[in-house]
Amino acid sequence: MKKKDVSAHVYITNSKIQVLMGSCVKNKLQVVNCYEEPLEEGCILNGIIMNNYSLQNTLTEMWQKYNLPAKGVTLVVNGSSITVKPLKVPQIAPKNVPGFIRGELRDIEGIQNMLVDYSVVTPKNPDGSCSILAVVSTKEFITSYISLFKEAKIELEVIDLVQNCLIKMMKRLKSLQGKTYAVFILDKNMLMQCLFSNDNFVMTRRSRILADPTDEGFEREVGQNINSIIQFNKSEQTGSDITDVYLSGFPEDAVQIFPHFAENFGVNVRTFPEFLPTELTVPLEMNPSEYTVLLGSMIRYSD
């Protein structure tokens, strides 16, 4: 693998900074290295930077410690300041799409003053429309990250979104295609849930988990969320029942409760979808489920 093909992908969670070094060449994801550093308690709250000084110090020290590249970096963001919605758009000029999105999401307070972006999921549906992932964010949220990296002398090339990364994973891994499944990502006490059905992104939501993973109530709370998304899928009449639930960010001790979920809800529960050697290679010490989001960020729609 040529060194110039390798790039850095960063995801800042509520508790740590994760970095993947790798590339996507000829439809294959190749991870060279993975790194993570813990954050001081309270640095980040649901994506919002609460302690810029501490976060910047950790970021700068991490880059120096692992000699990470200062250019061509991809940042993945997530948080309560972002609204994400799958939409079908008529065949209109790209310059008119933001206006269309603002019209569709006009119930959001202050939408006219917010940043609007989108990614194309399916260029042309059978009905002639185009499926997109619409994204709306406050300007302050995005500029806070741009400033953070600029002050750390790290040049961002791309800002991606968790949901978009998961969509790209759906399109890339053969084991996910044509299936109806949910992805649960645990970030401290916040549980993000994304539903996919027959190669379409259906919805995303967040729930607060009150119990610690070591508490008896943890299994019950996660189970309630699994049951809830199963019922939501049925009410949406997607045409297929959920067959799989993939759990990311769950502590190793929690894996023992996965079979309970499978028995109770009649779905397969595991940490990461099956993948072929021709689709993905990772270092032996790396647990792919811990880096699901960043693996998706490595994929470009043009690949």
Based on helices, strands and strand pairing, what is the structural class?
A: alpha/beta
Summarize the amount of helix as a percent range: 25-40%
What would the average pLDDT be, to the nearest integer? 93
Q: What is the CATH domain class of the largest domain?
A: Alpha Beta
CATH architecture of the largest domain: 2-Layer Sandwich
β-strand percent reads 25-35%
Name the helix and strand elements from N-terminus to C-terminus, one letter apiece: EEEEEHEEHEEHEHEEEHEHEEH
Question: Which helices and strands occur, and which strands form pairs?
Answer:
Layout: E1 7-12, E2 16-25, E3 28-38, E4 44-45, E5 48-49, H1 52-65, E6 73-77, E7 82-89, H2 97-104, E8 115-122, E9 130-137, H3 139-151, E10 156-161, H4 162-172, E11 180-187, E12 190-197, E13 200-208, H5 216-236, E14 244-248, H6 258-265, E15 268-270, E16 280-281, H7 292-297
Parallel strand pairs: 1-6, 3-16, 6-10, 11-14, 14-15
Antiparallel strand pairs: 1-2, 2-3, 4-5, 7-9, 8-9, 11-12, 12-13
Report on the structure:
By secondary structure, the protein is of the alpha/beta class. It has three domains: 3-79 and 140-168 and 277-297, ATPase, nucleotide binding domain (Nucleotidyltransferase, domain 5); 82-137; 174-270, Nucleotidyltransferase, domain 5. Helices cover 27% and strands 33% of the residues. It has helices at 52-65, 97-104, 139-151, 162-172, 216-236, 258-265, 292-297; strands spanning 7-12, 16-25, 28-38, 44-45, 48-49, 73-77, 82-89, 115-122, 130-137, 156-161, 180-187, 190-197, 200-208, 244-248, 268-270, 280-281. A six-stranded mixed sheet has the order 10-6-1-2-3-16. Strands 13-12-11-14-15 form a five-stranded mixed sheet, with helices on both faces. The chain is globular.
